[in-house]
Amino acid sequence: MQIITALGWVLLALGGFFCLVGSIGLIRLPDFYSRVHAASIVDSLGAILILLGLITQTQDPIVIIKLIFILFFMMLTGPTAVHALARAAKLTDKETKIDNH
């Protein structure tokens, strides 16, 4: 049981790391498309790793089922939302920093 607990803490730490890196990217990256990419890292990788870490930490089967449903819907809606944002920006001719040079 200690290995599963340690694995859960590693997943939580990695998820927190990717959320931190993605959040810094939202602040520091120069244009919209780069920021959308950083947001997708937070949404796809960081949150999913945190949910997997929470699944390994809990003992209650009802909580595990709920976390799996949340994980499934995040994996389904996250990339779709990021794609919709990027497509809408592309269709409205959103300029990038590279276009200005």
In words, what does this structure look like?
This protein has 101 residues and is mainly alpha-helical. It has one domain. Helices cover 83% and strands 0% of the residues. The longest helix is centred in the last third of the chain and has 31 residues. The relative contact order is 0.15.
Topology of this protein?
Elements: H1 2-28, H2 32-57, H3 61-91
Helix pairs in contact: 1-2, 2-3
- Could you describe the largest sheet, including whether it forms a barrel? none
Give the C-alpha Rg.
17 Å
Which term fits the overall shape? elongated
Beta-strand percent range: under 5%
Would you list the SSEs in sequence order as H and E?
HHH
Question: What key attributes describe this structure?
Answer:
101 residues, 3 helices, 83% helix
In short:
The protein is mostly helical and 101 residues long.
